[in-house]
Specification:
- The protein contains 28 helices and 17 strands.
- With 775 residues, it is an alpha+beta fold.
- Strands 1, 2, 3, 4 and 13 form a 5-stranded mixed beta sheet that branches.
- It is extended, with a radius of gyration of 38 Å.
- Strand 1 and strand 2 (83-84) form a beta hairpin.
- The longest helix has 46 residues, at 670-715.
Length: 775
């Protein structure tokens, strides 16, 4: 069925006239048939004829179309439900950067929550089978740029007893020949203008994006490009004139004539003239005649007509009227580095953002209420942060940024020890050789001439220190057995202080809420990145192998990068704690990781988690696609189902599909079955994220300790024969872990059961370990 046929069958009746209000009725025109401006078709055609109209409008439209949209809602803090309507947020919208930095103006007692899966987002991202969401939004903006208005025809479906928009079709402005009036609440659409088959569509089915025309406020829209009609025509005529010049306009450059020349004389003269002077090798040669002959030059030069200057003038006028910096198009004759750097910022802030806000206001007012009056539409702001302003602020309070944050600004790679803040009380010159761990004494470097550093650390234990009390000689002897020969010790050094323990795993797990959020965000991100249009197309052709290829291409590892960084943060936090405990016990400088092996492990840390989660997630999506499609669902139903399953394991994905089929077979409605399945899926994904987070963070905590202990052995601070790691069993341990309680292993060596790190024994193991001294 063609689009026109469907349109005719869907809207073949007109609404009855209704009273709109006497005041407003007196202001508005009572005639429904308001045709588009005569220039509408011409402006649409100019997109294909004028290069600068196309360049400007397509640049703006493509950026607006590629913007990612988000939906938010507000609820009472600490509750899971109970959305609250906040009109001022609906009016202003929310940018994703403001939401992320939590600088949105929200009333006290409320919190802003992003909704990742919603029918309105589905409509914006996949509005119809003809065009993807990016293209549809770009075309909408393009119509607004060229004609000042655009039209969406909404398609509704019934869900849970109410109708909601599920897709839309874009109606070209020149098809809309009538707009609503106080007495006629419908649009008149005529794909073949002037035909007798015009269709009346109730106004609630149409979203009319309109840039009002002040000269006809309640009429059709007006665009920037309409005001440039003469300039566009002038540039086009100049271009055609240049084109016609190459065809010489059926006019010769020279006229050669003379008195008393007959036809034979002119033919002979033409032949000799062409023979002697034609070709670049014969240029500038003289030609002698015995008869009186005159030559008249009919050629003209572009420089005489200032054609180049004229076209540049028209080009600049088109660009400047629309407010686009010329540097965006590579026009840099009058530019410098500062204006080039600022071009993108000015373009985004003064051209794109106003258009996005205009677009957002129409969607907020005319689309979202169909779903819920409390929803808030937002977008990812295209305006990049002012780097110069950020740098000035950072330099003012340099200590507010970590080493790695400074390295990010410099455009260089991060370092393992970079998650620290720098407090520079004094600049000290230090030779590179003195930077080796254990040899450089910062305290000595800051002493004034003649001043000596403290000879011994404070060796009197506090009452609350967890130190085994022994006789001085015995304590010193045990400390000397721990340290390699040649390492000086101080009297009563705290060599018997417990190093490590179960508290480290508890500290690491404190980052679990952040990691759960990272994993949940990753699964939602993957849902938006899966190419559903391509998968639907492959399934409609019966090519399930091609559909699976699109699933395999999903970049799961990239989405999991935040979770990986949270894991790494836990490792570094515990690593720092272990380093401080070890330094205090041995009376040495606090160690940092300096070996190439340790730094490489830090760089790669979390890769195993990413691989495991990635593989299991892909398996889950593949399994759901195969099972769902095999059950006889359509391509679109299959894709809608797997969209919600992203994040489940393969086994859980199979259970979800089976549960959904059983609900439908039992007579449960499509909407209720989908709601129950989605609730079950949400709970499963949350539990899976929690399991992954706890397991990986405990591993990060244990490994953070081990790395610093291995570093101390490498540098000679610990005698590997006199210190061991001891397995600590947590409360409520399983039958596998209980037998390992108190087991010991050398630093860098596996335990008796072949496991290197305690929680490698099984998933969600909460066991820890500590460093003990061998008597």
């Amino acid at each position: 069925m063609s689009f026109t046929t469907w349109l005719t069958s869907a809207f073949n009746t007109r609404d009855k006239a209704s009273e709109f209000g006497t005041v407003l009725a007196s202001l508005l025109k009572s005639e429904n048939r308001k045709p588009p401006d005569r220039g509408t078709v011409g402006m649409l055609a100019a997109y294909n004829r004028s290069p600068w109209v196309r360049a400007v409008t397509s640049k703006i439209s493509s950026v607006v179309g590629s913007t990612r949209w988000r939906i938010y809602a507000t609820r009472k803090t600490g509750t899971e439900r109970g959305w609250v309507k906040v009109p001022r947020l609906q009016l202003s919208g929310v940018t994703s950067s403001d939401a992320r930095r939590k600088i949105v103006d929200i009333p006290d007692g409320l919190e802003l929550v992003e909704i990742y899966d919603h029918p309105a987002l589905d409509l914006l991202n996949s509005p119809n089978t003809g065009f993807p969401g990016t293209v549809s939004r770009s075309v909408t903006q393009l119509y607004k740029e060229l004609t000042g208005e655009a039209f969406w025809l909404l398609n509704f479906e019934s869900f849970g007893g109410r109708s909601i928009p599920v897709s839309f079709e874009i109606i070209p402005p020149n098809w809309v020949v009538g707009i609503p009036t106080p007495t006629k609440k419908y649009f008149t659409i005529d794909p073949q203008e002037g035909s007798t088959k015009a269709i009346d569509v109730p106004m609630e089915y149409i979203i009319w994006f309109n840039n009002p025309n002040p000269a006809d406020l309640y009429g059709r829209g007006s665009a920037h490009m309409r005001s440039l009609g003469d300039e566009i025509d002038t540039d086009e005529f100049a271009s055609k004139h240049v084109r016609s010049w190459f065809y010489n306009s059926a006019r010769p450059d020279l006229l050669i004539y003379g008195r008393d020349l007959n036809r034979t004389d002119t033919d002979v003269l033409e032949a000799k003239w062409m023979q002697k002077l034609q070709g670049y090798l014969r240029a500038h040669r003289p030609f002698f005649l015995k008869a009186a002959v005159e030559v008249k030059d009919l050629s003209h030069k572009f420089s005489d007509m200032q054609m180049i200057d004229l076209r540049k003038w028209e080009r600049d006028l088109i660009i400047h009227v629309r407010g686009v910096p010329p540097e965006i198009f590579g026009i840099i004759e009058n530019s410098n580095r500062a204006t080039i750097d600022a071009a993108d910022y000015l373009f985004s802030k003064h051209v794109i953002v106003p258009e996005l806000d205009n677009f957002r206001s129409y969607i907020q007012m005319y689309l979202l209420p169909w779903y819920d009056q409390r929803l808030i539409l937002g977008y990812e702001s295209p305006v990049e942060d002012d780097k110069a302003e950020q740098l000035n602020a950072a330099q003012t309070a340099y200590w507010a940024l970590t080493i790695n944050e400074w390295r990010d600004k410099m455009g260089v790679d991060r370092v393992a020890y970079g998650d620290k803040h720098v407090f520079m009380l004094q600049h000290v010159a230090v030779a590179p050789a003195d930077l080796a761990i254990g040899s450089y004494n910062p305290q000595a470097a800051l002493l004034t001439p003649g001043q000596e550093p403290d000879d011994e650390p404070d060796d009197e234990p506090d009452d609350d220190d967890d130190i085994d009390v022994v006789e001085e000689d015995e304590e010193e002897e045990e400390e000397r057995s721990l340290l390699p020969s040649g390492v000086a010790t101080s009297k009563n050094a705290r060599a018997r202080k417990q190093i490590g323990g179960i508290d480290t795993t508890h500290t690491a797990v404190q980052l679990a809420p952040q990691m759960i959020e990272d994993l949940t965000e990753a699964f939602h991100q993957l849902s938006g990145e899966l190419d559903y249009v391509a998968i639907i197309a492959a399934l409609e052709l019966g090519d399930i192998a091609a559909a699976l290829v699109y699933i395999d291409r999903l970049e799961v590892s990239g989405a999991l990068e935040s979770a990986k960084q949270t894991m790494r943060q836990a490792l570094l936090v515990i690593n720092k704690m272990a380093a401080e405990q070890l330094a205090e016990a041995l009376g040495i400088e606090v160690l940092t990781l300096g070996s190439e092996a340790a730094i490489e492990e830090l760089r790669m840390f979390g890769a195993g988690m990413v691989t495991n989660v990635s593989d299991e997630t892909i398996k889950g999506i593949r399994s759901a696609l195969i099972d769902s499609y095999a059950s006889g669902r359509t391509a679109k139903e299959t894709v809608d189902e797997i969209r919600s399953l992203i994040g489940l394991t393969e086994a859980d994905a199979k259970r979800a599909v089976k549960m959904y089929e059983e609900l439908l077979a039992s007579g449960v409605s499509f909407g209720d079955a989908m709601d129950k399945m989605n609730g079950w899926i949400e709970d499963k994904i949350k539990k899976r994220a929690e399991m992954i987070a706890v397991n990986e963070l405990i591993e990060a905590g244990n490994r953070g300790q081990e790395l610093i202990w291995e570093e101390a052995v490498r540098l000679g601070y610990i005698n590997p024969h006199k210190a061991e790691r001891e397995w600590i069993v947590n409360v409520g341990a399983c039958g596998e872990c209980v037998p390992m309680a108190g087991s010991r292993a050398k630093i860098g060596q596996p335990y008796s059961n072949g496991v290197y790190t305690p929680n490698d024994i099984h998933v969600r193991c909460r066991c820890g370990e500590k460093l003990v001294i061998v008597p």
